[in-house]
Task: inverse folding
């Protein structure tokens, strides 16, 4: 039995997605850690991602005018990365390297098709002419002559394995409509060529393979909507130059009159394969979907519709599918269990209805779509039961159905309900005992609230949203529209809480929050509720009891406050700190900026957005960072007091990032001249201070050593001269 589990977005693929994969994704390869993947775009860039955090760990690009021509891979033995650009130029670097112009470079004598990296066998390089070299052999003489094995043939696919502690490479070629398969064993330097048996009126679209017991199983996805299997033994006793490989039908990609036009596929285990393609029924529009098939019993196990479209590429690592969906790279986890006939037809006694969260993207579904999705899950549950089941069993299933259907049906019923009834029902829904799909239910509730905000501009359930964010373990990917609406409503308190609690906020949203925080006037901030825990210990807070007359609309949202929300000029107010120094911003704005400092980010993807920050706001932000830097440096442990106060490392990182983004502008601004001068003097003084400490470091260590050696029991005075 196989099932698709929860899904999430790893990264965006467009210019605004923060990954720079606007040209599309060339390939996805495993990284140095099981939780890492290496993305190569169809251009100049390779990016290392940590999948569980949905955050980039590193990004490297070749120069303008150069193009990466085959997927970047990781050498698992040395933890180095290997790329080929412009077909012949080899680059090798490590995590600490930033500029690829300064890393190892070798120009090869032939064009490279692909590099395969084996966990215990090192990288293997396949050239477009069919020649194969291990990376070690190739680096001994990069300009060595590479033989041309294939003539007028084009390599369509390749894969590498380890068998009996030796690398084995398989690749498929095409010439004039005929397909050939080559097997290369590197240690014994043997090469076998085969011709693939032709299929009338159809041709191979994609290949995949696995090796077991000295036999390669080659699976071929054909244009006639079928998957064929070819067995190729590694032990060849014949010297026949070209053998014809016969194939057998493994699977027909059709079910209930619908045919799946597959574009790519992967092997999950000996009984299951996953196919990405378009499912079309007669007279209906085709729909792209991801499917899992049981090859043993010729059944479709599960499928997921992909309405935003895909690129046709599918990768699978560590029980996770990776594919493009619209303008994002999506990850879906899956599980495969032991294949049995009962599981294949959905009649396994202990089989359960798949969780709703495994199949529904709450961020893209409307109210009606939510109901349809829940109802489809209900129909799956009903069909999985035998028609001859006992009445008691049907009763048990019927009792379980309302929990599955109630969320979607409830949202549709409440679509036109009053605000009070709408929120009361949602609160009751959230107060129920947690179920396996409880997180999906929370996401559904937030989506319903946000949808009502969009349809009714006066409606904004600020307190309800705050309660959800503060009491539930949410993430940005579960409710991405939440922060967008909060930015639109200028709800800085909700944005502050999201920045503190969400671990996966995109850099573009972090920048938008920073810009809003810097733009809002101090007078407006004094009227609203902001969490001051991060600043209360180092900034004096004085509350002015001023009466503010406002017109209250639905849920406390006040549109009139927008009149004085923005600063037209940089604030002139300064606020005295606990020890007499002055802070360039008020305590409310300082608390909001501290939330930004705590947010996780990648410098590579934040810097382009930060360059768009207006100069006056950049200067104000730098003044506050300089103030924090001075405050941190006053403490022996360089730590500010308070809860969630920024660390000196966070402050210094943001200072460097801001100066990188705006240094030219800062130099030209008269109001920034004194600030830059003070910053320069302070840093220089610190460098001198630490330099003096380094000079006496050896003497201090010697004193410590002497102190441990000498355990005097009597009172004594010692004078030690430091030279």
Result:
């Amino acid at each position: 039995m196989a099932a698709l589990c929860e899904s999430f977005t790893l990264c965006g693929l467009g210019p605004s997605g923060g990954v720079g994969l606007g040209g599309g994704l060339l390939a996805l390869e495993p990284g140095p850690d099981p939780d890492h993947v290496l993305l190569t775009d169809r251009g100049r860039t390779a990016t290392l991602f940590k999948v569980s955090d949905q955050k980039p760990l590193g990004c490297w690009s070749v120069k303008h005018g150069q193009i990466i021509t085959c997927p970047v891979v990781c050498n698992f033995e040395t933890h180095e990365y290997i790329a080929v650009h412009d077909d012949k130029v080899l680059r090798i670097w490590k995590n600490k390297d930033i500029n690829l112009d300064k890393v190892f470079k070798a120009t090869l004598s032939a064009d490279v098709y692909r590099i395969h990296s084996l966990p215990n066998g090192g990288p293997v390089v396949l050239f477009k002419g069919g020649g194969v070299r291990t990376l070690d052999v190739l680096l001994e003489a990069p300009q060595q002559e590479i033989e041309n094995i294939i003539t007028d043939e084009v390599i369509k696919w390749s894969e590498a394995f380890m068998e009996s502690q030796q690398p084995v490479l398989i690749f498929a070629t095409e010439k004039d409509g005929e397909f050939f398969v080559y097997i290369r064993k590197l240690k014994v330097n043997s090469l076998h060529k085969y011709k693939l048996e032709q299929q009338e009126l159809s041709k191979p679209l994609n290949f995949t393979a696995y090796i077991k017991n000295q036999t390669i199983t080659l699976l071929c996805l054909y244009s006639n909507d079928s998957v064929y299997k070819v067995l190729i033994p590694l032990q060849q006793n014949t010297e026949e130059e070209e053998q014809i490989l016969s194939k057998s039908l493994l699977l027909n990609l059709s079910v209930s009159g619908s045919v799946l036009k597959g574009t790519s596929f992967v092997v999950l285990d000996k009984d299951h394969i996953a196919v990405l393609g378009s499912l079309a029924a007669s007279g209906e529009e085709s729909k792209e979907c991801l499917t899992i098939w049981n090859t043993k019993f010729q059944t479709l196990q599960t499928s997921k519709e992909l309405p935003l479209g895909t690129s046709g590429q599918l990768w699978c690592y560590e029980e996770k599918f990776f594919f493009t969906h619209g303008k994002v790279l999506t990850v879906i986890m899956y599980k495969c269990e032991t294949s049995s006939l009962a599981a294949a037809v959905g009649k396994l006694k202990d089989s359960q209805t798949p969780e709703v969260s495994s199949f529904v993207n709450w961020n893209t579904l409307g109210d009606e779509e939510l109901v349809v999705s829940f109802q489809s899950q209900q129909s799956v549950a009903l069909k999985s039961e035998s028609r001859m089941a006992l009445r008691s069993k049907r009763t048990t299933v019927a009792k379980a159905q309302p929990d599955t259907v109630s969320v979607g049906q409830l949202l549709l019923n409440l679509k036109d309900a009053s605000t009070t009834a709408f929120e009361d029902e949602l609160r009751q829904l959230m107060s129920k005992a947690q179920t396996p799909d409880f997180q999906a239910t929370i996401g559904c509730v937030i989506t319903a609230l946000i949808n009502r905000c969009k349809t009714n501009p006066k409606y904004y359930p600020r307190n309800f949203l705050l309660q959800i964010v503060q009491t539930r373990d949410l993430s940005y990917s579960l409710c991405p529209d939440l922060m967008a609406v909060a930015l639109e409503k200028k709800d800085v308190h909700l944005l502050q809480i999201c920045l503190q609690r969400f671990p996966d906020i995109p850099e573009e949203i972090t920048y938008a929050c920073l810009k809003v925080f810097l733009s809002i006037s101090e007078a407006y901030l004094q009227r609203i509720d902001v969490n001051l825990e991060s600043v209360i210990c180092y900034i004096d807070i004085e509350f002015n009891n001023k009466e503010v007359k406002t017109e209250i609309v639905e849920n406390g949202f006040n549109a009139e406050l927008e009149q004085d929300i923005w600063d037209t000029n940089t604030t002139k107010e300064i606020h005295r700190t606990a020890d007499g120094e002055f802070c360039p911003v008020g305590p409310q704005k300082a608390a909001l900026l501290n939330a930004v400092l705590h947010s996780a980010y990648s410098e590579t993807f934040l810097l382009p957005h930060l360059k768009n920050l207006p100069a006056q706001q950049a200067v104000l932000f730098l003044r506050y960072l300089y103030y924090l830097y001075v405050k941190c440096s006053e403490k022996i442990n360089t730590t500010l007091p308070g809860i969630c106060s920024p660390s000196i490392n966070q402050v210094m990182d943001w200072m460097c990032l801001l100066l990188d983004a705006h240094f030219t502008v800062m130099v030209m601004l008269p109001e920034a001249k004194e600030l830059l001068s003070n910053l320069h003097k302070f840093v220089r003084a610190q460098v001198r201070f630490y330099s003096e400490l380094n000079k006496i470091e050896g003497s201090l260590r010697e004193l410590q050593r002497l102190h441990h050696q000498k355990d005097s029991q009597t009172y004594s005075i010692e004078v030690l001269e430091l030279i």
Residues 407-504 form one domain.
